[in-house]
Amino acid sequence: MYKEIKIKNKIIDIYYNEKHKENIPVVILNTYGNEGKEIFERCNKIQTKEFILIAISNLDWNNDMTPWFAPKLNNNDKDSLGKADDYLKTLIEKIIPETKKYIEDELNVKISYYAIAGYSLGGLFAIYSVYKTNLFSRVASASGSFWYPNFIEFASKNTISENIDKIYFSLGNKESKVRNEVLATVEQNTKKLEQIYNLQGIKTIYEENDGNHFKDAVLRMAKGIKWILQ
Fold first, then answer.
1. Which fold does the domain 2-229 belong to in CATH?
2. Domain ranges within the chain, ordered by starting residue
3. pTM of the prediction?
4. Cα-flanking dihedrals φ and ψ of residue 210, to 5°?
5. CA dist 165 → 115, 134, 136 (Å)
6. 172: Cβ contacts below 8 Å, ≥ 6 apart
7. CB under 8 Å to 101, separation ≥6 — which residues?
8. What's the Cα-to-Cα distance from 20 to each of 3, 75, 139, rounded to whole Å?
9. pLDDT tens-digit profile of 30-76?
């Protein structure tokens, strides 16, 4: 079952099972297209612990999901303008309060905790967000864009939310095998991030999948959500 809400040009779909417990976690998922339904269904198929999914679409992907300006990687791409702070403000001040009201009042559910998940730049944003807010307890990044310029330096020099207790990373085993020198750093950077957080006492995992950046994206994201909810 699901409920659709529109807030500041963003489309928010709340997915939940008809029979649900009274006290369950909520996962925030920023989506490139409108893949929230597929991911929720796949989560159920792989027997993920019960949760409510808030899938957000109609995002300005290259800008809403990026923390600061970065030049385009090729002539067919666009510069990333780094509007993540603006979008995070909308998420925290508008989207989460309104969806929380629906979940608590209409579904009669008490939210046990919030997690945030994302694929590609959505995975980058998920990790970036927990440096900026204490709202989330767990993070799932599938094929996160950790090639993003200066992100490793940012993560190393700043302090992640003390509320984080689990972080999931995954990557395709062909993602770093590309000609572009910037994109080729994604594997070493992802592994370095996982190590940074693990040394801080956070429970982490790095999972390698077969294929490139685009293979089995729905399943990869569902596997990440399943792991952080265990």
1. Rossmann fold (3.40.50)
2. 2-229
3. 0.96
4. -75, 140
5. 10, 12, 10
6. 143, 208, 209, 210, 211, 212, 213, 215, 220
7. none
8. 15, 48, 22
9. 999 889 999 999 999 999 999 999 999 999 999 999 999 999 988 88
